[in-house]
Design brief:
alpha/beta; Rossmann fold; Beta-Lactamase; 2 domains; 6-stranded mixed beta sheet; 5-stranded antiparallel beta sheet; 10 helices; 11 strands; elongated; binds guanosine-5'-triphosphate
Length: 310
């Protein structure tokens, strides 16, 4: 199953940088050396089992944009699963950016009416005014420019975890059996008396699915010895994307000393976390807040669950 992902936006808005961070495990500091993308760079990324992401990084210089909208129109906008349009948060050419965006949206709705649209207000680290005020204003502006088309907007930066949050949510829409995976993870979490179980994609470390209860479940108190009795409000809401970011940074450090990353165990004073391979394409993280549960038992449970998830 191949899903086409269009990555579009003005030249210099940061498209290739984010691709390089998420899919090639490069650090943010290396992106300053990237040259402008000429025309379209296509990449195939085997994401999960049969799911292949066909990523089209479209160079954003005007001449290329004009060509996507005219001669290459049907090639670019046909069979698209997701379009990600990147806006530089600090752009001085917002009107021009919006004009190109509207033209691309027209092409997309014409050739791939079912495609999902994600808009990234990128380089948020450079924004001086209060970020949330600026972001809300921008989101409103983008919603207006999109007319009736449903959009999802994220504020992102390559210098923090926000990029992982956005991309995890984007790929989540492309995974056909995400809900089933979540159900299996919840069962697995119960079986291990884990507070939470998270499934990551192997190369990108994007979150694929989690066992977490919905907010309403988290609010209701259950039996005190059950894992769901843990107060989810105490958990950092950014924990998933922070983990993706930290593990990617750790993997990069490993590669610098020519070591390969395999697994991780953390025994902290109030919780234990084990990160280990689940399937060929995934890693699983099991978080337990019960000191009586041994790390070895968690690892054994992961080993036994592998077949089910393969
Ligand atoms: P084209 O290939 O011409 O379409 O440009 P592009 O959108 O691919 O831009 P590219 O990824 O080459 O990034 C341009 C510059 O922006 C690089 O110097 C990056 O280091 C910088 N950049 C990318 N993301 C961020 C970010 O989140 N914050 C900051 N401060 N700089 C960023």
């Amino acid at each position: 199953m191949k899903k086409k992902v269009l990555l579009m936006g003005a030249s210099g808005s940061g498209k290739t940088s984010m691709r390089s961070l998420i899919f090639s495990n490069n650090p943010a500091s290396s992106t300053a050396r990237l040259g402008a993308t000429i025309d379209v760079e296509q990449n195939h990324v085997r994401f999960l089992g049969d799911l292949i992401l066909n990523l089209w990084d479209c160079g954003g210089q005007d001449a290329f944009m004009d060509s996507y909208l005219t001669t290459q129109r049907s090639t670019i906008f046909q069979h698209v699963g997701v379009m990600i349009y990147v806006f530089d948060a600090e752009t001085r050419e917002i009107n021009k950016d919006l004009e190109y965006y509207r033209d691309c949206l027209d092409g997309l709705t014409q050739c791939s009416p079912d495609a999902a649209v994600f808009l990234l207000v990128h380089k948020m680290d450079l924004v001086q005014e209060p970020k949330s005020t600026m972001f809300d204003k921008k989101r409103e502006e983008l919603q207006k420019a999109s007319g009736d088309v449903a959009i999802t907007v994220f504020g992102t930066s390559i210098y923090d975890e926000s990029l992982y949050r956005a991309w995890s949510s984007i790929v989540h829409t492309l995974i056909p059996n995400a809900a089933v995976l979540s159900r299996h993870l919840t069962k697995f979490a119960d079986g291990c008396s884990a507070t939470e179980v998270i499934l990551f994609e192997r190369t990108t470390f994007l979150v694929i699915a989690t066992s977490s209860p919905s907010t309403s479940d988290a609010n209701s108190s259950s039996s005190p010895d059950s894992s769901s009795a843990y107060d989810f409000h105490q958990m950092n809401p950014k924990r998933y994307e922070r983990t993706s970011e930290l593990i990617k940074a750790f993997k990069w450090s490993c590669s610098r000393v020519r070591e390969e990353f395999h697994a991780l165990e953390m025994d902290m004073y109030d919780f234990t976390a084990v990160l280990d391979e689940m399937t060929r394409n995934t890693y699983v993280m099991v978080v337990v807040h019960d000191p009586t549960i041994e790390t070895a038992a968690i690892k054994l449970n992961i080993r036994m669950a592998r077949k089910k998830f393969e």
